[in-house]
């Protein structure tokens, strides 16, 4: 789907050959019939179809946001994308088709055997039932709902319809409109009042239910006083033939609840990853986005929190690593809409080779508010002389006792540091890896244990060959 | 809404005869200048807005910068007054005199460009219609300690003036330029749009200070484009207390090794004043240093926009670049917008930016209150202290006193 460009990216990675049988898919290109087809396959109610069709109109009307975003977006050819493959019609490939370097990566990251096959696209299904079934029982007993969007809207409309498309309206941006028109897959989660989940919910649990779609839609509602942690993605590179991913993730944190959403993504570098993520935090609720972006050709992702209730708190912790041919355009949005709300953004980026990392931020405090606080820190590390980094924050402050501080620094690994470690017997590459790991260490600690171990290994691997 | 960005037939500049009348009034000027003007006029007429939101105008109530209230070109000839020159080392003249007496020296102004940070159309209009301003050039190696003083005045009610100002320092020369912008009365809604091009050759040193205290009915557009040569240094200090709305675009381009660029500004706002500041620090060569400090203290419903970008090009290794924006909100309805940006393409850099916005620190206030200083005075004292960091960058003691007095007057009014 990518038209010829000046970029020399490794398109081979996603270039698996396999027999295709698309008899049951929606064909290529996007029009009202495709949307009707998707809705029909999913046996959706009338209002959902209307919602989709309206979204399609919005999508077609909206221009690409290239007045601020990268021109690379123009290389997406929307007419050659498959917007829906029916369940069971996913292409399959054999383990032998998987390139050796991919197998190596799995080996070195220590990915379990079963997961490897799924991640390489060999198996469309990943048997997590055994691990999940015990937990599922427990969750059901507590009244937790954990389903896909189709089931969510069909079986529990009284819960999900109220918030569906409310945190991120269809017309928010071109890609949220696209997702609203053709969404399939994703997770709809409801946590009843006072329920505090000790174990994180993982996208893995539902992987056999087309969880990793191109246009996944996630809606998590944490009722009063509940707590939940949700994790998606993994450190292993995921090899994709489809090159546009555009997800919408909506979080609703009702009074006094806590929601933590952890993403680790490592797309192959032919993928456009254009994701809209936003949370709404009511009184004394707390929302944390922990986001790690590695890989992809272009990622545009700005998790946001709308702080709607008194003393609500929002936090975004993000790590972006862009290697040659990649652009990580990430950031955060904090919209303060009630008194005494606080927010914190810590963003760290690393650019290797010709990689480019950008931070875009938005912090807004209108005049009727009192005693809101925001803290933003963006640190960028440049490894090679061709690496690039940008920072574009936008801050608006009015009102009584509101305060904002923003700080950004750009640096490189100093020759002194490298020299010091080389003297003690480390190779230049090892020294560099150590420095980079030190740079992101305080953020990596926020990730669950197994993720942080894998992340460290992954950074080591990305750093290979970047020095000298 | 009709704006200057979209000239309609009702606007002063929208009529067909306007420019041809202007051109025939200026038929005495040399041919190259007439060509230059009509070229700029064409660009002004042809300029089209892309239709989508322009990042260079983000947060700006753009309509306030239209020139709808403008009914005529100001006819007064004394809007730019230059101090008498004691030394005869430098060439320091009004623009109209330069056109008349030294057209050849002036002819390279056709190569000048604007900072290009958003108000492009107004820039072209200014280039086309400027018939006022000043020109300063120094000979090689001249060190001139006596400051060059320029007094600008905003025009009469509903009038507009366009200025082009040029400073050119030859290698290893140094100078100081002090500019004032004032108004004759407090109510005239005059508009002034001016460009300033500064060229510093190798080793040249310039301090430029602008003290802007125009009346609070006037509209100002300022386009400042600086080019810094090898080992040259420029300190630009701007003090803004006046005008109803002021759009200020400043770009400093460090074109050769070892250039040093400092840009300090303060804005003290009250009432409905608006200060819309856009800056660029461009590092196009290695071993350069730039430092920017923008401080805004905002009373009532005043609003400040700071949009700054540090751009470090690939060749610019060993760069040091800093940018700081501090906003003090003295009133609940005041608004500060901040867009501090970095674009770094080289890796041997030390680069940082910081932006803070807050009200007066409770502890600081408590300290003064507990020593018997009334609340209002304590707040003023802290605000003055906040602005002092910029004022002290003016390295001229007399002028510092003058600025302090001006700021205090504004506070007590």
Short summary:
The complex is a heterodimer of chains A (468) and B (413). Chain A is α/β, with parallel strands linked by helices.
Which key phrases capture this entry?
heterodimer, A: 468 residues, eleven-stranded mixed sheet, eight-stranded parallel sheet, 11 helices, 19 strands, disordered N terminus, B: alpha/beta, ten-stranded mixed sheet, nine-stranded mixed sheet, 8 helices
The helix content of chain A is: 25-40%
Q: Report the order of strands and helices of chain B.
A: HHEEEHHHEEEEEEEEEEEEEEEEHHH
Please give the largest β-sheet of chain A: 11 strands, mixed
- Percentage of residues in helical conformation of chain B: 10-25%
Q: Low-confidence segments of chain A, ≥5 residues, pLDDT <50?
A: 1-23, 87-92, 122-131, 206-212
Rg over C-alpha atoms of chain B, rounded to the nearest angstrom: 21 Å
- The proportion of strand residues of chain A reads 25-35%
Give the helix/strand class of chain B: alpha/beta
CA-based shape of chain A: globular
Number of strands of chain B: 19
Our Rg estimate of chain A from Cα atoms comes to 22 Å
- Biggest interface: A-B, 36 and 39 residues
Number of helices of chain A: 11
Q: Strand-residue fraction of chain B?
A: 35-45%
Counting structural domains of chain B, the number is: 1
Spans of chain B of at least 5 consecutive residues whose pLDDT stays below 50 are 1-9
Number of strands of chain A: 19
Q: Which structural class do the helices and strands of chain A define?
A: alpha/beta
SSE series of chain A: HHHHHEHHHEEEEEEEEEEEEEEEEEEHHH
């Amino acid at each position: 789907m990518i038209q010829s460009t000046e970029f020399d990216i490794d398109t081979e990675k996603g270039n698996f050959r396999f027999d295709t049988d698309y008899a049951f898919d929606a064909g290529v290109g996007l029009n009202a019939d495709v949307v009707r087809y998707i809705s029909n396959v999913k046996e959706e109610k009338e209002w959902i179809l209307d919602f989709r069709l309206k979204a399609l109109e919005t999508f077609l009307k909206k221009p690409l946001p290239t007045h601020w975003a990268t021109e690379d977006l123009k290389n997406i050819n929307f007419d050659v994308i498959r917007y829906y493959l029916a369940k069971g019609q996913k292409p399959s490939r054999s383990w032998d088709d998987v390139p050796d370097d991919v197998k190596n990566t799995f080996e070195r990251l220590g990915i379990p055997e079963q997961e490897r096959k799924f991640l390489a696209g060999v198996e469309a299904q990943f048997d997590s039932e055994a691990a999940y079934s015990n937990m599922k029982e427990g969750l059901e007993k507590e009244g937790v709902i954990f389903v896909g969007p189709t089931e969510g809207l069909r079986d529990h409309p009284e819960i999900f319809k109220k918030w569906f498309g409310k945190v991120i309206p269809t017309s928010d941006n071109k890609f949220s409109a696209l997702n609203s028109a053709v969404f399939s897959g994703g997770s709809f989660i409801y946590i009843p009042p006072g329920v505090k989940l000790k174990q994180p919910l993982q996208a893995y649990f539902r992987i056999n239910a087309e969880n990793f779609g191109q246009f996944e839609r996630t809606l998590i509602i944490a009722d009063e006083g509940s707590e939940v942690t949700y994790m998606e993605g993994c450190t292993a590179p995921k090899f994709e033939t489809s090159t546009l991913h555009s997800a919408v993730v909506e979080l609703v944190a009702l009074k006094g609840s806590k929601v933590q959403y952890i993403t680790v993504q490592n797309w192959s570098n032919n993928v456009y990853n254009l994701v809209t993520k936003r949370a709404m935090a009511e009184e004394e609720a707390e929302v944390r986005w922990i986001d790690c972006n590695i890989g992809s050709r272009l990622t545009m992702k700005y998790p946001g929190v709308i702080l709607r209730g008194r003393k609500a708190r929002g936090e975004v912790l993000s790590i972006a690593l862009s290697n040659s041919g990649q652009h990580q355009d990430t950031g955060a949005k904090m919209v303060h809409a009630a008194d005494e709300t606080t927010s914190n953004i810590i963003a760290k980026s690393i650019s290797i080779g010709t990689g480019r990392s950008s931070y875009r931020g938005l912090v807004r405090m209108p005049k009727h508010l009192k005693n809101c606080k925001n803290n933003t820190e963006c640190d960028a590390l440049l490894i090679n002389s061709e690496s690039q980094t940008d920072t574009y924050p936008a801050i608006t402050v009015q009102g009584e006792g509101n305060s904002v501080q923003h700080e950004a620094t750009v640096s490189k690994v100093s020759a002194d540091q490298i020299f010091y470690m080389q003297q003690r017997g480390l190779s230049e590459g090892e020294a560099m890896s150590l420095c980079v790991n030190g740079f992101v260490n305080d953020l990596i600690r926020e990730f669950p244990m197994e993720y942080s171990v894998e992340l460290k290994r992954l950074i080591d691997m990305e750093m290979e060959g970047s020095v000298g | 809404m009709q704006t200057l960005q979209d000239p309609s037939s009702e606007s002063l500049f929208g009529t067909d005869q306007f420019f041809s009348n202007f051109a025939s009034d200026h038929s005495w000027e040399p041919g190259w200048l007439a060509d230059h003007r009509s070229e700029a006029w064409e660009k002004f007429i042809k300029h089209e807005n892309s239709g989508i939101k322009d990042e260079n105008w983000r947060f700006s109530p753009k309509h306030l910068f239209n020139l709808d209230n403008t009914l005529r070109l100001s006819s007064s000839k004394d809007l730019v007054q230059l101090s008498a020159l004691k030394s005869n080392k430098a060439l320091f003249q009004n623009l109209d005199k330069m056109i008349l007496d030294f057209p050849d020296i002036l002819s390279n102004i056709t190569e000048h460009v604007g900072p290009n940070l958003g108000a492009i159309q107004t820039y072209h209009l200014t280039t086309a219609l400027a018939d006022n301003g000043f020109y300063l050039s120094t000979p090689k190696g001249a060190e001139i300690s006596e400051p060059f003083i320029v007094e600008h005045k905003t025009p009469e009610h509903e009038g507009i003036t366009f200025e082009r100002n040029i400073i050119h320092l030859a290698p290893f020369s140094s100078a100081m330029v002090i500019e004032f912008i004032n108004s004759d009365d407090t109510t005239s809604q005059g508009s002034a749009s001016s460009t300033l091009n500064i060229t510093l050759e190798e080793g040249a040193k310039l301090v430029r200070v602008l003290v802007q205290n125009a009346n609070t009915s006037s509209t100002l557009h300022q386009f400042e484009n600086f080019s810094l040569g090898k080992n040259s240094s420029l300190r630009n200090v701007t003090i803004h207390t006046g005008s109803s709305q002021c759009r200020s675009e400043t770009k400093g381009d460090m074109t050769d090794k070892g250039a040093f660029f400092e840009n300090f500004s303060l804005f003290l706002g009250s009432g409905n004043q608006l200060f819309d500041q856009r800056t660029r620090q461009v590092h196009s060569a290695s071993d350069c240093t730039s430092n920017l400090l923008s401080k805004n203290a905002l009373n009532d419903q005043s609003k400040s926009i700071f949009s700054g970008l540090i751009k470090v090009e690939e060749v610019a290794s060993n760069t040091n670049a800093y940018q700081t924006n501090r906003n003090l909100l003295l009133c609940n309805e005041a608004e500060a917008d901040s867009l501090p940006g970095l674009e770094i393409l080289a890796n041997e850099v030390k680069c940082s930016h910081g932006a803070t916005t807050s009200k007066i620190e409770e502890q600081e206030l408590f300290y003064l209150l507990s020593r018997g200083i009334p609340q209002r005075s304590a707040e003023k004292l802290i605000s003055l202290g906040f602005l002092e960091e910029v004022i002290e960058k003016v390295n001229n003691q007399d002028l510092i006193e003058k600025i302090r007095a001006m700021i205090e007057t504004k506070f007590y009014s």
